[in-house]
Amino acid sequence: MSHYNVNASVSKTLIQHLIRFVAAPGDVDERTADILHAILATEISPELVPQDASGQIQATEAMIGPYALQDFNLYYLTRYGFRPSKIAYLSWHAWKDAEAGAWPPNLPAASRRAYDLAEIKRWRRVFLGRFFTNQFKRTAMPNGPKISSGGSLSPRGDWRAPSDAGAGVWLDELECNVPDSEMSNSQEP
Fold first, then answer.
1. For the domain that residue 81 is a member of, what is the CATH number?
2. Whole-number pLDDT of residue 2
3. Is residue 7 part of a domain?
4. Distance between CA atoms of 155 and 24, rounded to whole angstroms?
C-alpha cells in the first residue's frame, strides 16, 4: 500500500474512455495507438490473479457485473446517496435500449448494449453485497484525490461508512421496490 491512492475516485470505465480519447484523434503515433487499443482489448482483472493453465485470465465482469453498469451504480450511490430502487430505475432508463441516446465517442459498437430490468436488479444485488462487504478495504486505504464529479471512495473523502456495515437494509429496499420484470409505462413511478 502506498501513501497516496491515486485512483480512489477513478472508475474503470473512465480510464477506458480516457485511453480511447488519447488513442483516437491522432495525438499519439500509430504504434502507441495500437498499444492503447491492445490495452483496451485486454480483460480488466483488478485482483491480479495469474493466468490459468489455458492462458485465460480472470473474467471479473462475469463475477461482479458489467463495469459500465456497476460504475453507474457507484456514481449514483456515492455522488447522490440514492436508494437502490431509484438507481435501478435510473439504470433501466439509461440502459434499456442500446439504440437510444448518445454513447461516448469512440466506444465500439459491441460495447453498446442494453440491460433488462431483471439483469439490472441481479447486478445491483451483487454490487450492494460486494460494496458493503468490502468497506473494510476502503477504510484501510490511504487518502486519494477527487478526480471526477462522482463521489470519491477515499476513506476521508466523500464516502464514509463503518467497516462492519452490512448490505441488508439496502438489499431489502431493492427487493421490495424493484419488480423482477420490465415495467410498462403505466407502472413507472
1. 1.10.10.1140
2. 63
3. no
4. 35
Q: Which residue has the cell 435510473?
A: 90
pTM (predicted TM-score): 0.78
Is 5 within the bounds of a domain?
Answer: no
State the residue range of the domain holding 156.
Answer: 12-177
Q: In whole angstroms, what is the distance from residue 115 CA to residue 117 CA?
A: 7
Instruction: Please state the rounded mean pLDDT for residues 97-101.
Output: 91
For the chain, percent of residues with pLDDT exceeding 70: 81
pLDDT in tens, 113-132: 999 999 999 999 999 998 88
Amino acid at 46: P
76's grid cell: 449514483
Count up the domains in the chain and report the number: 1
